[in-house]
Structure formats: C-alpha cells, structure tokens
Design goal:
The structure holds three protein chains of three kinds. The termini of chain A are far apart. Chain A has one domain: MetI-like fold (Orthogonal Bundle). Helix content of chain A is 77%, strand content 0%. Chain A has nine helices and no strands. In chain B, the strands form three sheets. Chain B has a six-stranded mixed β-sheet with strand order 8-9-10-3-11-12, sandwiched between helices. In chain B, β6 (86-89) and β7 (92-95) form a beta hairpin. Chain B is globular, with a radius of gyration of 19 Å. In chain C, α1 runs antiparallel to α6, α3 (67-81) crosses α4 and α6 (129-159) runs antiparallel to α8. Chain C is built from eight helices and no strands. The longest helix of chain C has 39 residues, at 5-43. The chains are: A mainly alpha, B alpha/beta, C mainly alpha. At the A-C interface, α2, α3, α6, α7 and α8 of A face α2, α3, α4, α6 and α7 of C.
C-alpha cells in the first residue's frame, strides 16, 4: 500500500519541485523567447543570423537529449557541475524559449508596417518602438500560442526526473519501486499533470481576455471543453514552430 | 398544377398520380424564424416551375428540403408517390431511415449556386463518380454517358481537366452534366448563375433552355433571371414570408400580377 | 574541455544500431499516429454523443499529459491487466498514441476546411456516407494537412529518445549504455548532433512540400 508517510515524504515535495521547475523554466523561456524573437527582427543581418541559428539548433534538438548533455556531458567537459534542478530548468528554458521566439517573431511581423512608421515619425528609438508600440500590439496575438507552448513545457518538466531531479514523476517512480503498485501511482500522476494543464489554460485564458480588453477587442469564444481545443491553423503553426524550418 | 396559398382549408388533398412532388403542410423554422409556413403545393411530372420572391422568403429552403439537406419540422413531402422523410409502418408514418431517404432522393438532381464540383477529381470523374458508385453502372457505361453529356454541354475537350482549370461558366456546365448523369426525374436549380461573371451567364442559361425544351425532366428553379424564368417556366410561384402568395403561368405573373407584394418585388428586380 | 574522438569511433557501431531502432520506432509510431488520429477525428464528428464525447475527453487527456508518464503507465500498468510488451513496442505504442491526439486535431482542421458545398454535392448525388468520406472529403482534407502532419513526424522524432527511459535501445539508449560502461560522455554529444543533422533537412523537406501543395491548390 502507498503509505501516507511515503506520500508526504516524497510525493508532496515532488509536486512542489515540479511547480518550481515549471516556474523557473517558464521565466527563462519567456526571457529567451522575447530576446531571441526580437533579435530575429533586427536590422543587422549578423544579429538576425545568430538569433536564427539559435532557433534552428533548438528546433532540431531533442529536449531530453539536450538535458542529458547538460547534466552529464557539460560538467565533464567544463569540469564543474550544475545542480540537477538547474540543468533541467536551463535545458527546458532554452529549448522552449527557442520555440517561443518563433511566436514572438511571427506576432511582431504581423503588426502593421504603418504602426512602425508612425513610431519612427515620432522619433522613438528602436527599443522604445518595441516596448511601447509593437510588443503591446502583438501581445494579444501571442497568448494563445504561448498557452499551447506552456502546456508543452509543463509536459516537458516530467523529463527532469530522468536526470534525477526529485519531481513528482521521480517520486512516482520511487514509489513504484517501493510499493510495486504502479496503477494507482501513474494514474494519480497523469491526473495531476492534467490538472496542471487545466489550471494553466484557465490562467492563460484570463490573461488573454485582459490583453484583448487592453487593445479594445472582445475575446473570441473558445469551445474547448476542458483545456485547449486548438484551431487547425494554430495547431499546425505550433508544430511548425517546433519543427519545420529554414532561417526565417 | 394547383397551389393552395391558404392551406388551412385543405389539410388532406387527394393524391393524384401525376403529381411528382407534393408538399403537405410543411413548416420549417430556423430558431424563431419561420421559413416555411404550413406550406402546401405540388408539381406535376414534366413541368418547369420557377420559384421567385425576396431573399429569405423560403424558396431556397424548398430545394434544400427536397435534397434532404434540411428536414421539415412538421408536414410531409412526397416524391413520385413516396414519402421523402417518412416511412409507412403498420399504417403509421414514422421518420424514415437513411437508406429509404437515399432511395427516394435518387430521383432528384441538384445544381448549386457555387457549382460544388469535387476539386480533387477530373471533369470526367466528377461526372462518373455517382453513376458508378450509386447506380452501379460499369465504368465504361458511365464514361460513355459522361461523354454524351459533355458533348451536350459543349465541353468535350475539357474532359481531362481539373475543375480549377475551368472558368466559372464551364464549371457550372460540368455541374449540370454531373447532375444529369444520374438521369434524375427532377432537377433542382439553385440560383445557378448568381456566382457567374455576367458574360458567362447567357451560355449557361441557353444550355438550360435547351435541356428544358428537349427533355421531359421536371425542373424546380430558383432564379433572379426573370427573362429566363419567363422562357422556360410552365408555372411561377411567388413566395413571401414562407408562403406562396401567388402562382400561375409566367405571362400572367409577370404581366398582370394580382398581389401587391408580387408587383413590388417585380418592380424592384426588373 | 576534453572530447576524445577515439571514444566516438568506438561508439559508432552501436550508434548505427541505435539509429535503426529510432527510425523503426518513428516509422511505426507514425503509422499508428496517422491512422489512429484519423479515427479520432472522424469519431469526433460523430452525430452520436456517446461516441463523440468520450473520444474528445480521452484525446484531450492524452494530449495534455506528459508522454514520459504515459510510457511508464503503458510499461508498468498495462501488463498488470493486459499483454506485456517489450520496451520498444511500448515506446512505439506510446509515441503513436500520444501523437495521434495531435494528428487528430490536424485532420479535424483539414476536414472542417472542406467547404460545406462538397458535403451537399455528395448528398445531391446520393453518394453513400462511406463513399463521401473516401472519395470526396478525405482526399481534399488530407492534401491540405500533409505539411502539418509532417511537422508532427519531426516532433515525434525529437520525442523518441524518451523510449530509452523505459529501456529501449534507440540512439539515446545506446548512448546511455555505452557511456555507463565506458565512463565517457562523448556518445551523448554524438547523438545530440545527429538529431540536429537529421531534423534540419527533414524540416526543410516539409517546407518544400508545404510550398508545393499550397501552390497546387
């Protein structure tokens, strides 16, 4: 039987670790996404090229393998070691940040050129234009694809268990070894992850409503029964951000 | 041909063998909007009937009902003596099954406003697909039938093209051939020239005039082309707010309409 | 910083074994994902709510939970009640099942994209339901979703190393085993580079395909 003792010792902290990994890697991914995404719209080809290369490398890379590499190969090569939690967070943040950069780039490209020109006419600097004109207008467009990406990132956090970070999947595996009862453990795990996805989607929808209200638009009606029901275009655009390519 | 604008007086008229299509007390609502209001009318075999009236008056719904694209809320529709939406079991009318509906509907062909050709099939297969897979014709039979029809519509040289390679007028003529390939008793024409460029309209209408003149196919036609309606129609039905407010031969309807709404409508459109 | 090319040489034979297993998993997983996804998509359009709703719920659940945990579930829980499968088979089923919920969305979008007039014309010609699907709707729907499906094959390729965690000897599995035996880390670098080398041309291919199909419709 799954003892309460064990549950409290391992599983509850595991949930907390999962949430931490999710939180840190989301912040990191957001920073990477906005930095790389805006750099990919730079005037200088060399900046565009470097940012594009970063994106292409991670688009071709498997997150799990990158995580392994960060956890085992890099320490040996460099001679120092990350805390596993940070290898995992770093790998997730860098990978999903790369996917996110495509969302940022696409949304910025969709801002009408006239807006950019109006900003130039008002003598804003490039940074000011991004911060005050382009990103605020592109932001509502970014949220639905960011929602999908966030769910993918959330699912990706389970990978850290493989490099011995004691998240809830890791705790589940330990529990299985200790009790030999796999059905309730993995069912519980799946339900917990689903719950997490559900909560994240609700939060993102709230964010979307507020963002759309911020630019004076009514939010679209979503018909997803539980979490996200993607539009076909959203879905395939999402897949292509994570895979198909060529330097944008 | 008889119509009963005020149907309440005529609940159960006797069925006449020559009646190919018969609507009895058909009502159809979309939400609160009554599109067909307790409608009764019939069409005899071989007649060409044009439905006119303002948009939203229910005329297109008649065609869509016959094609079973929509179902009536109440009332019955009969096509060559068989109920379209109902089956008689132990003397009682019950909603019909899919196969019964399909069997009755085989008598009916339809040409759409937007052509609705299958873009993934060449012209020839657009025409042979249903004869082969619904009527069970051999491929050779179906193809020779298709060739004849393509000759009729004047598109023989386009037999191996895809619909996207044809003009709108040519596509609509293929669509007409496709409908005729099923040898339907009834042909429904739903504003077949509305989506065409003005210079292509005449060709399609001439073709339909030919078909009307040379075949004994029964036609139900929704159109805004009043000259065409005058040419081919035996009867014209004027619709307003889900009811037939006036009917008669085209000479009468177009020259001396009785009803004020008909006059207004014709003035607006001519 | 140390990187020993001799170790790489030593690893290469096993690397190729791993490549074969990865490709095998990918090919069979794709087969499952493409066909099962189509079943989901068609079931989601069923007029019967008792078909439609459970399918929607199950696919949403699978899509919103981690593949890794699903693999554990398939590997440790399913044998308790059903057949026990080898790590590779489990991996293939897991990958296929997980990605079928994505391809279902792709198919759904493709099917929704077929104009209503095509359904109506099929009905007007009395084509049977089956014939309408196979000769009118699906050929049009699938054509426009091929690039999106291709993207998911690449995504699946990138997720395929997860099957190493339940013991399959794919590229990552071989690399891990080799590294553990030799106390080296070069193998993992090789596999990482290999992924980029495989995935990048694949994605270029899909882009070319996308351009061709879009131009032709």
């Amino acid at each position: 039987m799954m003892s309460w003792e064990f549950f409290r010792e391992w599983f509850l902290p595991g949930i907390w670790v999962t949430i931490q990994v999710l939180l840190y890697s989301t912040v990191l991914a957001a920073i990477v996404a906005f930095t790389v995404g805006t750099l990919r719209t730079s005037r200088f080809w060399i900046v565009r090229f470097l940012a594009g290369t970063y994106f292409e490398i991670f688009r071709g890379m498997s997150a799990l393998i990158f995580m392994f590499w960060m956890a085992f190969a890099v320490p040996l090569m460099l001679g120092w070691q990350f805390v596993p939690l940070w290898s995992g967070t770093l790998a997730l943040g860098m990978t999903y940040g790369a996917y996110g950069s495509e969302i940022v780039r696409g949304a910025l490209a969709a801002v009408p050129a006239a807006q950019r020109e109006a900003g130039i006419a008002l003598s804003f600097t490039r940074m000011q234009r991004l911060r005050r004109i382009e990103i605020p207008q592109a932001w509502p467009e970014m949220i639905p694809p960011f929602n999908n990406l966030l769910i993918e990132l959330m699912k990706g956090t389970a990978l850290v268990s493989v490099i011995a970070v004691a998240d809830m999947t890791f705790a589940g595996n330990l529990l299985r070894l200790a009790t030999n009862e796999s059905a309730p453990i993995y069912t519980l795990l799946l339900v917990l992850y689903f719950l997490l996805a559900f909560i994240l989607t609700r939060l993102m929808r709230m964010l979307e409503r507020r963002a759309k209200a911020g630019v004076g638009r009514a939010p679209e009606k979503k018909n997803g029964i539980l979490t996200r029901k993607l539009s076909g275009r959203g879905e395939s655009a999402q897949a292509s951000a994570q895979t198909a390519g060529g330097v944008g | 041909m008889s119509t009963t604008p005020d149907s309440t007086t005529d609940k159960n008229p006797p069925v006449d063998g020559s009646q190919l299509i018969r609507f009895d007390n058909v009502t159809k609502r979309f939400g609160d909007n009554v599109v067909l209001d307790d409608l009764c009318f019939d069409v005899s075999s071989g007649k060409h009937v044009t439905l006119i009236g303002p948009s939203g008056s229910g005329k297109t719904t008649i065609l869509r009902l016959l094609m079973t694209l929509v179902e009536p809320d109440s009332g019955t529709v009969k096509v060559s003596g068989d109920y379209l939406f109902h089956e008689e079991r132990n003397g009682k009318l019950e909603p019909a099954g899919e196969s019964h509906i399909r069997e009755v509907r085989k008598n009916i062909g339809m040409v759409f406003q937007q052509f609705n050709l299958f873009p993934n099939m060449k012209v020839i297969r657009n025409i042979t697909e249903a004869p082969v897979h619904v009527l069970g014709l051999s491929k050779e039979e179906a193809e020779s039938r298709a060739r004849e029809l393509l000759e009729l519509v004047g598109l023989t040289e386009h037999i191996d093209k895809y619909p996207s390679q044809l003009s709108g007028g040519q596509q609509q003529r293929v669509a007409i051939a496709r409908a005729l390939a099923m040898r339907p008793q009834i042909l429904l024409l739903d504003e077949v020239t509305s989506a065409l460029d003005p210079e292509l309209v005449a060709g399609v209408l001439d073709l339909l005039r030919d078909i009307a003149r040379t075949t004994d196919i029964t036609m139900l036609c929704v159109t805004h082309e009043m000259n065409f309606a005058r040419d081919i129609s035996d009867d014209v039905l004027m619709f307003d707010a889900g009811k037939i407010i006036e009917s008669g031969p085209p000479e009468k309807i177009f020259s001396e309409p009785e009803h004020e709404r008909t006059q207004q409508f014709l003035n607006a459109i001519l | 910083m140390t990187f020993d090319w001799d170790v790489v040489d030593e690893f290469m034979p096993r690397f190729w074994d791993g490549v074969l297993v990865t490709l095998q998993a990918l090919a069979l997983g794709t087969l499952i994902a493409f066909s099962l996804g189509l079943v989901w998509a068609m079931a989601q359009r069923s007029p019967q709510p008792w078909v439609r709703l459970p399918v929607i719920w199950v696919t949403e659940f699978i899509r919103n939970t981690p593949l890794l945990v699903q693999l554990f579930f398939l590997f440790y829980v399913v044998p308790e009640v059903g057949p026990s499968m080898s790590p590779l088979t489990t991996g293939i089923v897991g990958l296929g099942l997980h990605y079928s919920t994505y391809t279902a969305e792709v198919y759904r979008a493709g099917i929704d994209g077929v104009p209503v007039g095509q359904w109506e014309a099929s009905k007007a010609l009395s084509l049977s339901r089956r014939r309408t699907w196979t000769s009118v709707i699906l050929p049009q729907a699938i054509r426009r979703v091929v690039p999106a499906l291709g993207n998911y094959v690449v995504a699946m390729l990138k997720d395929s190393p997860m099957i190493a965690v339940i013991g399959a000897l794919d590229m990552l599995g071989e690399a891990r085993q080799f590294s553990n035996e030799t106390f080296t880390t070069e193998a993992i670098t090789v596999v990482g580079v290999a992924f980029i080398v495989i995935a990048y041309p694949a994605s270029l291919l899909i882009r070319a395909l996308e351009r061709r199909l879009v131009n032709n419709t």
